[in-house]
Amino acid sequence: MADPPTREDAPLQCPRCISKMRKQRSSRAVIDHCDKCDGNFFDEGEMLAVLGKSADPEIWARSNRKFTPSASDINCPRCHARMVLHPLAHGDIEVDIDFCPSCGGIWLDGGELDAVMRIGARQLADASRTKKKSASKAAPDSGPALLGEFLSLFPKPK
Ligand SMILES: [Zn+2]
Ligand SMILES: [Zn+2]
Q1: Domain ranges in the chain?
Q2: Per-residue pLDDT for the chain (158 aa), expressed as one digit of tens each?
């Protein structure tokens, strides 16, 4: 049986500037990136795969007292459902990410990715402090190596 291109292989259209997005592959995920506006789309689970538990939307919701989802102004590039703005905060860093309630995809504008990674780094630091205190033997499913790989996907243009 021939291998027709799947939906996953077709380039997605950027919901912000309508240009075709480019696939960025790592060992853990394929992320759709827009070279024009620097936006990024993560299919469900991809962000978790590259960032570990700190990228779990349920953890974001729990750690954010002000959690109040509201309608976004863009549609999901994967399934075209209206996305929902999901506020994410840690200390003085605050960002509204776009989350698709239909397929679980996540859209990050260029600057949002930076903020999410800083929040992720702080959560990793929190997690390692907690780990030392409780001396838990559970294997961590996120760590600096994961964050490093995630960062390497998005080289800063010089
Ligand atoms: Zn774009
Ligand atoms: Zn979707």
Answers
A1: 22-133+141-150
A2: 555 555 557 889 999 999 999 998 877 788 999 999 999 999 988 877 766 655 665 555 555 555 567 889 999 999 999 999 887 777 888 888 898 989 989 999 998 988 888 887 787 787 778 777 654 444 444 445 555 555 555 544 44
Query: Is-contact 21 33, C-beta < 8 A?
Result: yes
pTM for this structure? Answer: 0.71
Strand boundaries in 30-154, DSSP class E: 30-33, 40-42, 70-75, 82-90, 93-99, 106-108
Ion ligand 1 nearby residues (CB, 5 A) = 14, 16-17, 34, 36-37, 39
Rounded to the nearest angstrom, the distance between the alpha carbon of 101 and the centre of ligand 2 is 7
Q: How far is the CA of 12 from the centre of ligand 1 (A)?
A: 10
Eight-class DSSP state of 154: S
